[in-house]
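Postdoc handover notes: sequence design on the structure in folder B. Input C-alpha cells:
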C-alpha cells in the first residue's frame, strides 16, 4: 500500500496544474469565506425565540452546486445588488464609491444577500453568463463598481416585467433569482412577483430541470407590519409556480424550486 501511495503521489506531481485544481475551485470553497456573513445577514433582526431556517448560504450553495455541472449556465437576477455597505454604516445606498471596500467584506450589505457578487464568485471556476436587472440606473451603476473584477456579468436597467417580456438568450435560464420589491408594504411586492411568475411560465423561460430561487420568503419584517401569510413576498407566486410545473426543493429562509422535466 505504501508503494502504491508513493507512486500515486509521483504521478500527480507530473500532471498539468489545470488538471488537479478542480477540487480547489468548487462552489463550496468559493463561498466558504462568506458563510458567516451570509448567515449574519440572513438572521439579522430575527426573533431569537423562533426556530431559524437555513440561511442564504445553504440555499445559495445548493443552487450553485445544482447548476455547476451544466455547460455554460445562464443565471438571471431580478433586483440587483445596490448598496456598497450595510444599513448600520454611514454610506448605505450612497453613490459615493469611497464606501465600497472590496477588501473588507464585513462592511458589505449582507442583509440584502449580495447575490450578484456571490453568484460570480461561487461560479468563477466555470464559464457562466450572469444577467442582473434593476429598474434604477443608480443601483446598476453601484453593482458595476462592486463586481468590476468580473467580466461575465451583463447589467440591465429595466423593470422586471418589461425585461421578462422581452429577454432573449441563446438558451433558457438555468437559475432565476427573484429579489424585486420591498419588504414593506408587502402587498405590492407580492403582486409584482406573481406577475413575474406568470410571465416566466407563459414564456417558458426556465430550462427543463432549471431552478428559481426566491429571496426573503421567511423574512420577518412583513409580519411586524401586520402581514398574516408565512410566505412574505412569495405568498402568491409560490402557489402559482407549484401549480404550473415547478416543485419545491428547499423551503428555508429562501425557497428553491425546480422546473419539472417532461
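Designed sequence:
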Amino acid at each position: 500500500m505504501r508503494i502504491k501511495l508513493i507512486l500515486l503521489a509521483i504521478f500527480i506531481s507530473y500532471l498539468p496544474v489545470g488538471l488537479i485544481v478542480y477540487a480547489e475551485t468548487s462552489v463550496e470553497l468559493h463561498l466558504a469565506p462568506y458563510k458567516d456573513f451570509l448567515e449574519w445577514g440572513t438572521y439579522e433582526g430575527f426573533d431569537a425565540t423562533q426556530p431559524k431556517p437555513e440561511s442564504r448560504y445553504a440555499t445559495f450553495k445548493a443552487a450553485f452546486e445544482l447548476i455547476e455541472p451544466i455547460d455554460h449556465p445562464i443565471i438571471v437576477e431580478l433586483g440587483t445588488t445596490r448598496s456598497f455597505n450595510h444599513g448600520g454604516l454611514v454610506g448605505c445606498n450612497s453613490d459615493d464609491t469611497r464606501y465600497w471596500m472590496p477588501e473588507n467584506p464585513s462592511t458589505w450589505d449582507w442583509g440584502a444577500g449580495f447575490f450578484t457578487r456571490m453568484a460570480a464568485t461561487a461560479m468563477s471556476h466555470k464559464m457562466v453568463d450572469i444577467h442582473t436587472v434593476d429598474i434604477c440606473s443608480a443601483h446598476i451603476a453601484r453593482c458595476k463598481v462592486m463586481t468590476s473584477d468580473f467580466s461575465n456579468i451583463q447589467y440591465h436597467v429595466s423593470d422586471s416585467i418589461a425585461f421578462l417580456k422581452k429577454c432573449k438568450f441563446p438558451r433558457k435560464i438555468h437559475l432565476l433569482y427573484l429579489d424585486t420589491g420591498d419588504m414593506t408594504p408587502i402587498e405590492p411586492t407580492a403582486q409584482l412577483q406573481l406577475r413575474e411568475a406568470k410571465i416566466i411560465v407563459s414564456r417558458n423561460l426556465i430550462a427543463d430541470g432549471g431552478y428559481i430561487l426566491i429571496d426573503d420568503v421567511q423574512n420577518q419584517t412583513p409580519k411586524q407590519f401586520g402581514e398574516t401569510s408565512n410566505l412574505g413576498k412569495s405568498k402568491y407566486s409560490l402557489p402559482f409556480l407549484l401549480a404550473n410545473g415547478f416543485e419545491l426543493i428547499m423551503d428555508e429562509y429562501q425557497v428553491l424550486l425546480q422546473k419539472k422535466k417532461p
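Context for whoever picks this up: The chain is about 35% helix and 15% strand. Don't rerun without checking with the PI first.
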